[in-house]
């Protein structure tokens, strides 16, 4: 399974990468985001939302755990930051979202790996400098390998002002 590494030079470029990824999604996908606080997980999620045709500005759902957005496909933006044990993820009853027809983007996914689908696209975001980020995409499953091939083939353009 091939992975993909992309360096982002700005928040807008991270959003552009997300937008390109969102355009490649067809429904039923789970994108797991891992990275330290401020690494750019929410920026990537915002771009994914825009790639799904969602006009709203996707905000981090840290305090509500999940935010739903409507576009070409539904987006379920899940944040596990406040979760302390994997059992809490199971207790949330996210199966309808995770195994449904929408797209799930899960921030702080490392807190729930044992309860999340085994097939997914894992994105590890590392902070390199105040503006630079490293995004490491690792597919788990054939569908996610196809998505990664599409992402690799497409030029990534920074988002213009929104």
Task: Tell me what you see in this structure.
It contains 5 helices and 7 strands, in the order βαβαββααβββα. It has helices at 11-24, 41-51, 86-91, 95-98, 142-153; strands spanning 4-8, 30-34, 66-69, 75-79, 103-107, 120-127, 133-140. The protein has a 7-stranded mixed beta sheet. β6 (120-127) and β7 form a beta hairpin. The protein is globular. The termini are far apart.
Which characteristics define this entry?
single chain; 162 residues; alpha/beta; Rossmann fold; 7-stranded mixed beta sheet; 7 strands; globular
Mean pLDDT: 89
Q: Could you list the spans in which at least 5 consecutive residues all have pLDDT below 50?
A: none
- Overall SS class: alpha/beta
Shape: globular
- The number of helices is 5
Strand order of the largest sheet: 1-7-6-2-5-4-3
Query: From the coordinates shown, what is the CATH architecture?
Result: 3-Layer(aba) Sandwich
Order of helices and strands: EHEHEEHHEEEH
- Return the domain count: 1
**What's the helical proportion of residues?**
25-40%
According to CATH, the homologous superfamily is P-loop containing nucleotide triphosphate hydrolases
Rounded to the nearest angstrom, the distance between the terminal CA atoms is 35 Å
* CATH fold-level name: Rossmann fold
Question: How many E-type strands?
Answer: 7
Please identify the top-level CATH class. Alpha Beta
- Rg, Å, rounded: 14 Å
Largest sheet: 7 strands, mixed
Can you lay out the helices and strands and say which pair or pack?
Layout: E1 4-8, H1 11-24, E2 30-34, H2 41-51, E3 66-69, E4 75-79, H3 86-91, H4 95-98, E5 103-107, E6 120-127, E7 133-140, H5 142-153
Parallel strand pairs: 2-5, 2-6, 4-5
Antiparallel strand pairs: 1-7, 3-4, 6-7
């Amino acid at each position: 399974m091939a992975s993909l590494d992309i360096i982002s030079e700005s928040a807008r470029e991270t959003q552009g990468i997300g937008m390109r990824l969102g355009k490649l999604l067809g429904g039923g996908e789970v994108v797991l985001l891992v990275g330290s606080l401020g690494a750019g997980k929410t920026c990537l999620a915002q771009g994914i939302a825009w790639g799904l045709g969602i006009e709203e500005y996707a905000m981090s759902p840290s305090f509500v755990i999940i935010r739903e957005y409507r576009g070409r496909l539904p987006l379920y933006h899940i944040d596990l930051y406040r979760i302390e044990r994997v059992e809490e993820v199971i207790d949330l009853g996210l199966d309808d979202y995770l195994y449904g027809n929408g797209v799930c983007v899960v921030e702080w996914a490392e807190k729930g790996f044992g309860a999340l689908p085994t097939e997914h696209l894992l994105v590890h975001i590392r902070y390199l400098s105040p503006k630079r980020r490293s995004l490491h995409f690792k597919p788990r499953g054939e569908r996610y390998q196809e998505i990664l091939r599409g992402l690799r083939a497409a030029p990534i353009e920074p988002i213009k002002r929104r």
